[in-house]
Design goal:
3% of the residues lie in helices and 43% in strands. With 442 residues, the protein is mainly beta. The protein has 2 domains: 3-146, no CATH class; 149-401. Strands 10, 12, 13, 14, 15, 16, 17, 18, 22, 24 and 25 form an 11-stranded antiparallel beta sheet that branches. It has a 5-stranded antiparallel beta sheet with strand order 1-7-6-3-4, with no helix packed on it. The chain has a 5-stranded antiparallel beta sheet with strand order 21-20-19-11-23, with no helix packed on it. Strand 8 and strand 9 (138-146) form a beta hairpin. The chain starts with a strand and ends in a 41-residue tail after the last strand.
Length: 442
Amino acid sequence: MTVEHHITRAKRRSFDPPALYPFGDLSRDSLVSIEVEAPDPVVIDFVASQAGCSPSHETILCWVADDGALHHHYRLVGCHREHSWTGHAFVAFAHHHGTELPAHASEVRGRACSFFRVTTCPGAGHVHRVELCWFCGGVWATASSSWLDDELRVILRPPRSEEHRLPPSSQSWELTFEFICPPHPAEAGSPFDASTHTVYIWGDLSFNAYGPEGRCPLHGRRMNQIVPQLMTGRVLSSSEAGGAAHWSEEEAWALQAQYYWEGEAGESRALCGKVVDNIKRGDVIRSSVAYDPSSGVLTASIQCSGRASSIRSERPFPDGDPPQFASWRHFFQAGEAGEAGRGAFGRPTMCVEYKGDCDLRTLCGLLPFDVRSVGLPGATPRDARDWTVELYSPRAGECLMLRQTSHRPGRVLGGLLHCLQHRVTALRATEAAVGCGPPRSL
């Protein structure tokens, strides 16, 4: 979806109704024919910068009716969110304090102003961002659009992660991650709402190879994941003895160790450690997943500055009655069956996971993902540049490889998100600089 907009100093001439052509081209220099059929709901964030603004003036935003009448007259300071429809038109202009506000679009002629109109497009539930700034005594607009996803992920994978094998079940092992806490979304001025948005940042170990869609199905549960994580927003944060999961709102960054799986009906189940709150930007986060063959137990922990959250998981799917696996060692042995001493499959991944009314700019504000080190059990150390970096949209069902423009240890700076053309369900990303990348050492 696009916002058709054109920045122009309005001509001294009569006003043409917006129903005839899209706002943004009062001079008709380059007309664009737009047909608005059944209107779709849209969300528009108007962001006004006061830099360069004269003390005697203010920024006014109006909705423009089909007959040119101006409505609402919002005085913009900071961000204003407008719930509107495709086909609606707006105008932003500079207004001198104490003077009469214009009532019709024809009255803003001769001013430096910006008209724009939200165009029609397939589907509903999209978001726009229109930035308004002062320059040469007038209000100027730039617009960027992104699809309103309900989930976006930046994923870091080691080479052939789907084929990664753990040591044999008779041997102990430990998987470790170390990364830096990024800025909180609210710090970057993002419209982050802890009641409706969620961010998880994690290094995990999952066992998808043995699920119903895996290469060696052993059970019918779709998720089976050990995931110590950094989190904020509306997050899964506690669980009952049988694994029933509960959510809470975390306004700031917090840490928690978790084992997450799906119940037999597909519902979320979890084993949760305590929540460690008050984590700050720049804090060093260390997490681990460890296996003890003598007890068949998996432990997971995540810590920062001596404060830690941990769990002890005795077997997969503890809600099973009767249990399908007596211990994690039993599970790994089932995965090793017929493999002549080779270990079970276990997929390590690092991820920035963003849920809610996702905006690409908010995701970019969480990056670069600064990973300090990773220790992979059962893996030969590899060059960090072999790690892949992907942008994933579950709605689009696509992974977009991010181009790595630097191989400096620790993070890849750059990476360009391009439009992923996949018919109507394309992941639409205006060019945005994203920094994320593989770990410094393995």
